[in-house]
Amino acid sequence: MENLELKDEFNPKYAIDYSKPVKLYRNLNNGKWSLMQNGIVKAYARKLALKECSFKVSEKSRQRVLKNRRKNVHAFIIGILSNEFDENKNLKEVTYCPYKRGEFHEIDGKPVISAKYIFANIDAEKHVVYK
User: Fold this and answer.
1) Counted domains in the chain
2) Dihedral angle of Cα 33, 129, 100, 110, to the nearest 10 degrees
3) Predicted TM-score of the model (pTM)
């Protein structure tokens, strides 16, 4: 994957197993997407595609965000890294804000729990689109 910036390409601890799912989240510190696998942040990217996706929010951690008014990592898109995605075909935007709702959802409010594919682009107006 040419868009990935591996955390440490020479350390096998940070090697990505492309056959297994990764957890994707927006990193507020570096302005990129972070990819976790086996509980370890292994890479960063400005844009990438995932397939066979699910959308997960830790409600306990979300409640901590609401109580403390301080964000923490608690919402993920889980999927397998993919090169197969056409970002221009009938895609719907998905978003998440812990202060508004406890789930990922479309702009019109429809909850999103899974997707065949997602395309995440930190530089785009619509950060995450799916089909």
Assistant:
1) 1
2) -150
3) 0.91
